[in-house]
Amino acid sequence: MINITIDGKKISVEEGSTILEASHKVGIDIPTLCHLDLHDIKMVNKCASCRICVVEVEGRRNLAPACATPVHDNMIVKTNTLRVLNARKTVLELMLSDHPKDCLICPKSGNCELQDLAERFGIREVHYYDGEKSTYIKDYSTSIIRDMDKCVMCRRCETMCNSVQTVGALSGVNRGFNAVVSPAFEEKLENSVCTHCGQCVAVCPVGALTEKENIWSVVDALVNKNKVVVVQTAPAVRAALGEEFGLEAGSLVTGKMVAALRRLGFDYVFDTDFAADLTIMEEGAELLDRLERYIEGDESVKLPMLTSCCPGWVNFLESQFPDLLDIPSSAKSPQQMFGSIAKSYFAQKLFIPREKMVVVSVMPCLAKKFEASREEFKVKGNPDVDISISTRELAHLIKIANIDFNDLEEEDFDKPLGESTGAAVIFGATGGVIEAATRTVYELFTGKKLEKIDFEELRGIEGIRCASIKINDMDINIGIASGLGNARKLLEEIRSGNPRNLHAIEIMACPGGCIGGGGQPYHHGNIEILKKRADAIYTEDKNKPIRKSHENPYIKEIYQKFLWEPLSEKSHHLLHTSYSP
Ligand code: HC0
Ligand code: SF4
């Protein structure tokens, strides 16, 4: 252990710790901008580029960056001297001198770490303002806007995209005022290997990376009297939306969310969870079919079967593992199944053509915007899902409409596409899709009632998890990965012969699953928030009267009246897809 003194406090810390880590141990807050340590998901950004965290170290002439200076025995550190504060203020002013001053209309306003620091240091004037400035043109992808004039070169996005997600879409290029984080050859993000996962947006401290907002398209649809506007809400939204209204992380706001959507004027408030139950029927049937053929000795059967509901993950697979495109389930994601069913089954019930219906999805995810725009999910140019907005955008819409969210009485989803089971809601946390599938596959495979519905062994936030579940005499080996870097590890294992003999794998692009999606309220580096959201999801599951997808009465009805059976010709046509490199 190393003994040091920080601001007069004597402490012992592990060898190799930085001054910043040591300070956190004694509760001393040193401001940072570039630094980000998301230990639980193995993301540590330590590029020491912003220099906001400088401190005085006795015996050293220059100020030292706390995030990159290791402690040594008997070190004496001062974190709040006038020299330190003055240096931090100067650094901030220099940053602001090359930063746009459009905070009033910046999408990150109120959530911007640079704005917070400027306020904290009482900066009221920016010196050094004349002179050269960076001038980049905004880059719009289907899901993300890159406004590089706002980039502070913290490299958090680069670390997230390269080290955690292993996508490699972003890296620092050029020098001086031309320095920027960019796709290769300064291409547009849309033309790069970007998966639209949105994790770079989740960690960007400023307004350089933000979602492509669709709020006003929703308003346009809502005011159009010739349209029937239907909304679906993803499982993870209800576990995080409350944070935008000052509620504790992990507050479940399902009923208030439904009430707010009605106040906004949606004609039907439905639930993506209904389609998650439908996904289990289709994906579960596919897994059952593959397992039965495998048991019978069919060597052509593709195992492990991969889940296919996460669009960031599908994009990653298509661009990085084109040789493995025949192993995922062909089931569309719940978002897309919902759109397809809403514009066929439900539009027919209303006696309206699909073109008269607008389907809006509220998702914790930015890749869902891209997924909704894919050509294969359109019928004669009309998309199954017209507009996708994030949890943050929904909160914004509720605020614009002046709805007092916390005061709303809880309301229930409309029927039939609003009824769902506990199995569907756990889709929102890593491991949930495969747990939901296991509940159904077990009962359909064995013909027996499942006594213990909770499969605790499939839960947790660890990036890669494996478990064996006994179904009759067979051990079904299940793999779970959240975060694309973890997905890559499992996929490389499959390429090299599947040494763990996995039969099914659930993959979610975002660390922690959808609860940690790129469209969720910003966690500002507090990963504990993700755990609380996951707890909320499992609480909702426990509180549901029905907890297995195949027992959802409206799912039974849709098979009886419309789809006939899982994997039927009609199901294939409406609910399945294929992948291309
Ligand atoms: Fe998810 Fe989904 S669980 S991807 O994380 O499967 O976004 O919440 O909506 O579609 O249901 C996101 C969340 C969904 C889909 C569902 C799946
Ligand atoms: Fe990388 Fe995901 Fe950001 Fe795309 S959205 S640049 S894949 S982190």
Describe this structure in words.
This protein is an alpha/beta fold and 581 residues long. Among the domains are: 2-80, Ubiquitin-like (UB roll) (Roll), CATH 3.10.20.740; 215-274 and 335-407, Rossmann fold (3-Layer(aba) Sandwich). The chain is built from 18 helices and 22 strands. α8 crosses α10 (334-350) and α8 (272-295) crosses α14. The radius of gyration is 25 Å and the shape is globular. The chain starts with a strand and ends in a 6-residue tail after the last helix. The mean pLDDT is 95. It binds 2 iron/2 sulfur/6 carbonyl/1 water inorganic cluster (HC0) and iron/sulfur cluster. Residues 234-236, 272, 276, 309-310, 333-335, 363-365, 368, 427-428, 433, 508, 513-514, 517 line the site of 2 iron/2 sulfur/6 carbonyl/1 water inorganic cluster.
